[in-house]
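Course assignment 3, question 2. Fill in each field.
Student: A.L.
Task: Predict the tertiary structure for the chain below.
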Amino acid sequence: MKIRFTKMQGAGNDFVVLDETQGRFGLEPAHYRFLADRHFGVGADQILSVRAPTPEDAAAGIAFGYVIHNADGGEVENCGNGARCFARYVHERGLTQDNPVRVRTASGVLSLAVQPDGRVTVDMGAPVFELARVPFEPGARTPMVVGSWQMWPLDLKENRPMAGANCDSDALIHVAVLSMGNPHAVLRVDDVARAEVEVLGPCIEHHPAFLRRVNAGFMQVVDRSNIRLRVFERGAGETLACGTGACAAVVAGIRLGWLDSRVDVRTRGGRLTIEWSGRLEDSVHMTGPAVTVFEGEIELPEHPAGPDAP
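Answer field:
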């Protein structure tokens, strides 16, 4: 089967975008892994599917379904950098004239607005702090109070066995825990360039306290309006940028008393601007770039290589 695709990137976080508004392609996890593979497929951190809304969503003014698969083939709840690319995609192809455009993800409805300069602002909704909804299981852990919030201790030796990850460290780290439609653990570091992202990232991602794994954010506070950030994303590894990770880091920094309400986030792929009032019920707004890289057509193998191929 041949399918058309568009390659896009937002602050270096790259995507394969598929138009399924006229019908589903019926892809299996192994097909998503193939498309994401940088040697045999197109290459991407995530695969984004643009789908027609359900009749109920259409009646409510929701224009599209927005479905995200990670590079490992698993479906995830949200992707902020992908949402910006999604908005540019549907506008550039004339699929909608709505601006902002409302789309349905697995975790809720997003409002996406294309700005005159080409950047896109995403209303990411209100952050989620209830531990059961992250989901995070605190067990017998006692949080450390910081500012008006808390950070949770993680003993990395508790990590479940995982091939290729050295999680035998005696390190006890403290993380802020929240969801931006997907789970995040935010760790403050002195120098993000020297942070052990590749070592600690997998150990945090697979820590048993996070029932559906977690995205691990490593945040360096430069001043109250600027941070540097690296994120080890579940199912994708470290990416050049993570939109929900940037939102989670800023929200955590505001609640912990380190940051003001508008923060520029410097990632390895570029700059994102995050705004949040600090009121728990208010939405987080993220503004950043979204760029089309190229378009093409690819033949999907009937049986993509890999142990879990369909």
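Instructor remarks: The chain has a mean pLDDT of 93. Residues 33 and 73 are 5 Å apart (CA to CA).
Grade: pending
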